[in-house]
Hints:
By secondary structure, the chain is an all-alpha fold. Helices cover 73% and strands 0% of the residues.
Amino acid sequence: MDINVWAALGFIFAAYAVVGNDALQTLGTFINSNGRFHWTVLFGFAATILIATFTYGYIANDGDPSFGRLANTEKYPPILDPQWYHAVPPLALLILTRFGIPVSTSFMVLAIFATMGGLTKMMTKSLVGYGLAFGIGMALYMVLARTLEAFFRKNEETQFARHWVVLQWLSTTWLWAVWLMQDFANIFVFLPRELTGVQAFGAMAVILVMLAVTFANRGGPVQKILKSKSAVTDIRSATIIDFTFAGLLYYFKEVSNVPMSTTWVFLGLIAGREFGFSLMLRIKARADVARLALSDIGKAYIGLVISVDLARGLPALVEGKGIWDSNAGMVFILALNALVIPVGYFLKKKNATSMTVMASALAAGAVAFFIFPPT
């Protein structure tokens, strides 16, 4: 199959935006806690893992580097001749990434290729992922806050002990590999589901270039979200975060092949971690922790709405197709956009009232989504 210019451009935009945006999740703690190394050393390490994971996936899945995440062609039908509007969402993602907004790459890139049923499955799995990660993060750090983390703070000089350095690089290896298995679909959705060796490894080379740019920028603007959290530059704390996040991603990878937002899982884990610290150590006021968590959720939610509006709106404008697939889909999209009002109100004010309004609105929306999922 030939790869047309819009497929190629969409792939390039997606590769840079996905790697740049999701460096926060998978490589952010690694970059932050290894600032003493030159970026080329860290890049070489990450590049080696990427090449090994890609090669394994390509061989094991008969030429499909997405690890089967796009295998359900009813929900994620292949687009044989991508048009200009298919390349717009990853370009929008690239722009939003420059502003440090933690947009879900799965929703931004895959939504325009998915049916409403496929989008619903992605959202369901991602919401469950956020909730589970939040609960595990809070429970884990309620235990660790006064034990291991307290020890880490009192003995900062021991963090560079050889065994901790080895453990952190091992945890990054596992996390980076598992994340790639989840998110390769977000990049390769623009290309044929089965690639020739030249196409596949040529595409991998493009991703490596984008990865090098990300490391040269020390993670880019999205890193500021991670840097606002407690004790993320300590190698030992970073190791625990990475192992926990990798375990969650591996679990969801094994549960089903449905694509999901790894960004939402990461934000849930980090939010739960901050609440665990706040409950046990009171380093930050709970209101401040809630404000930070809701700020991250709000930005991610706006990214979701932009993703869905682009996915449903662009084909309708160009080809005259229905902007929704059913009456339930219509109600879902209208409600999704309506919830931007309380989210925007909170992001502007960030006071107690706006926090309550946004949290209540999103909670009600999530409950309604699970009870009446659009199809």
